[in-house]
Amino acid sequence: MSDTKPTSPTWKVILHWIGITLLVSLLAGVALLFFMPSDWLRNIINKTGSAALGREFAIEGDINIDWDWTTPSVSVHKLRIANLPESKNPNMVAIDEIDFQIRIWKLLKAELNLPKLKFIKPKIILEEFSATKKNWDFPTGDKSPEDRSDFPVIGALSIDAGKLTYRDHPKKLAVKLDIDTALGSELESKKDMYKLSGQGILQDQPFSLQATGGSISTLRNTEKPYPLTFDLKMGSTRIDMEGTISDPAQMSGMNAQLNLQGNNLADLFYLTQIPLPPTPPYKISGRLQKQKEIWEFQKFKGQVGDSDLSGDLSYDTKREPGFVKANLVSQLLQLDDLAGFIGATPSKGTLSPEQKAQAEREKSNPRLLPDVPIDLTRLRATDMETRFKGKKITGTKFPFTDLDIGFNLKEGVLRLDPFNFGIATGTISGSLILDGQQDVPQVQSDLILKRLSLKQFFTDPKFESLAAGYFGGQFKIKGNGRSLAEVLATSNGRIILLMSGGKISLLIVEAAGLDLGQATPLLLGEDKSTDIRCVIGDFKDENGLLTSEIFVFDTTDSKLNGKAQINLKDETIDAKVEAHPKDFSIGSARTPITVTGQLKKPTIGLDPKELAARVASAAVLGAFLTPVAAIIPFIELGLGEDSDCKGLIDQARKHAEAQPGVDKPKQQKNQEKTRNIPKP
């Protein structure tokens, strides 16, 4: 839907100088027409035309005039207008023959009235070299009609074997079209309509085009809208339109049915300059309207992958850069259809052949994080304000329920605000910023997890006893890179997870501690559950290296503590978890669990070198109570002093007070400080 300001049509320039030719002939006198050589007349016309256009204008063939005092017939052979020196083509216009009748006396009123006009093998090349240099700009200035009635009065226009070439060098657009009139149509309504068809290249992408328009008499009729059709194919993308335009002179008053379909919405960028994300195959239809410089795609509906999509979109092409405003809604959203937003490829559902092949390649890729480059050219092309709501989310192993995201793009900076996901009866909310103004983009996130139900993440019948446990947290990181993988590999920040209350499967706890005496029968029968007292996880992110400063999981049956490092550069993990049971179980392996290897496929095993006693000794307690003491104010603010973490907090405080050189944790009384702390 990109737009261009109307400029002097080449056809009008040609007709203008044809009229001057006849007017000069009239003023020269009838005698000259009959008695002077045609070479003399050609020279006069060529000099006059060249001076007016500031470029060579030449009629190199015969000029034949069948004289009539009111409506003479004229035939001009081999007319051409030179191109700009920058073009590889010497001529902008070259026409084998122009045959026309003209009402001479109308010229005295500055009106071009042609009862008949025929072009034989016209070849026109229109080129745009920059925003200020176009080969159709002449010293005569912009003579575009301001009204439909300002178009030349043409009774019958025919074009035989016409060729039109358009090149926009900055946009890498090249179009070659065949132009013909549809004379002799069986339907009277389509008689004298005009047909355009051809091929072109846009941003190195080949495409084909077919279009039809109403007759020249319809063009001048201000009482009826001008009919037109348009069908474009570019790879898998197809755009077809059928409708009318009330003011063809200003390209305004468009009212048409627009149908879009293809394998990837991102491919529409080549035609519209709108930076849409990669998507699965889509099919969308709606009403296309245009008033002055604003295009509107109204009440559109369709399918993107396995998700429905509807909404309204406007595109203001007068602003620099263009400005898109849209409201989009999906009643049933397949989450995998949004994979392109983070540079990933959808792996299931409705996929294009290219996406299926890419999904297979990604299965064998040892890397987990998407490394598709961020396209800065697209990010800077158009400003945008878009709101997208997914009413219901399906097709994911995580318990997402809905989403509400604002995409605000201005001068290459994309802000996702608001950013709200409904998940597990809770929310993930906050903001994401992608700054694409520099050659290496910067991404920063500040996300809050609030009241996520643990039970929603375990749907297996073995874990039916899981009850109302909730957790929360905060993800606040910043990084630089040309892809999501690079951003995370350079990231800095902090990740905190907290949980208090509820129940968790005893099977999970005992299995994590490899307490075989209790876990084995649970694997064979009904699951049981144990109360959760407190969970604390605090991970520091430095230059892409996530290090656990605190990891404590306290239940009525066991206390687990661990250490972990996750390297986001090489996507590896090195973690160890120890379980310290509060009861005794025959067959306890008393061996820490390790998680090592690649993030995409880690190895879970035992660490036989470090046998752990099943009693929470002072040494073990000290190992994790000291860092807990350091964030007691955060825990108390986030969970409250009366939370189930109180016992662990008291232990940590006493431990800190007994250690020389350790700062004593202070109780927080100002509850106003809890506003920015995630609460489960």
List the helices and strands and how they pair.
Layout: H1 10-28, H2 30-35, H3 38-53, E1 57-59, E2 63-66, E3 73-82, E4 91-101, H4 104-107, E5 113-130, E6 133-134, E7 153-160, E8 162-168, E9 173-182, E10 193-202, E11 205-213, H5 216-220, E12 226-234, E13 237-247, E14 252-262, H6 269-272, E15 282-291, E16 294-304, E17 307-316, E18 322-330, E19 333-334, H7 353-363, H8 376-379, E20 382-390, E21 393-394, E22 400-410, E23 413-423, E24 426-435, E25 442-453, E26 470-480, H9 484-489, E27 492-500, E28 503-505, H10 506-512, H11 516-524, E29 529-542, E30 545-555, E31 558-567, E32 572-581, E33 593-598, E34 602-606, H12 618-630, H13 632-639, H14 646-658
Parallel strand pairs: 5-7, 5-8, 18-20, 19-21
Antiparallel strand pairs: 1-3, 2-3, 3-4, 4-5, 5-6, 8-9, 9-10, 10-11, 11-12, 12-13, 13-14, 14-15, 15-16, 16-17, 17-18, 20-22, 22-23, 23-24, 24-25, 25-26, 26-27, 27-29, 28-29, 29-30, 30-31, 31-32, 32-33, 33-34
Helix pairs in contact: 10-11, 12-14
